Amino acid sequence: LQRRYDMMKADLREVQEEVALQEDKILGAKDTIAKLDAAIASEVEDIARQDLAIILTHNDMMKYSQANLEDERINVDLTSKKEQIQKQVEIDAEEERQLEK
Q1: Nearest CA-CA partner of 16 in 62, 1, 39, 8
Q2: DSSP string, the chain
Q3: Rounded-to-integer distance, Cα 25 and Cα 16, Å
C-alpha cells in the first residue's frame, strides 16, 4: 500500500510539473499576445495619422483648386467686361465720327 501511495505521489508530482510547464507556456503566450496587441495598436495609430494627413492634404488641395476656379471665374468676368468696354468705346467713336460729318 505504501509503495502504491509513493507511486501515486510520484505521478501527482509529474502531473503537477506538467501543469506548471503548461502554465508557463500559457503565460508566455499571453505575454506574446499582449506584445502583438501593442504592436497592432501602434500600427493602427500610424495608419490613423496617415489617414488624417491624407485628409488634410486633400482639403488643402480642394481649397487651392477652389481658389483657382474662383480666380479663373474672375479673370473671365474681367475679360468679358474689358471686351464690352472696348466695344462700347468703338461704338462711341463711330457715333462721334458720324456726328462730326
Answers
A1: 8
A2: -HHHHHHHHHHHHHHHHHHHHHHHHHHHHHHHHHHHHHHHHHHHHHHHHHHHHHHHHHHHHHHHHHHHHHHHHHHHHHHHHHHHHHHHHHHHHHHHHHHH-
A3: 14
Could you read off the pLDDT of 14-70 as tens digits, one per residue? Answer: 999 999 999 999 999 999 999 999 999 999 999 999 999 999 999 999 999 999 999
Which of 83, 75, 79, 78 is closest to 67 using CA atoms? 75
C-alpha cell at 75: 479673370
Compute the CA torsion angle 9, 12, 17, 21 (nearest 10 deg).
Answer: 180
Distance CA 27, CA 40 (A): 20
Give pTM, 2 decimals: 0.53
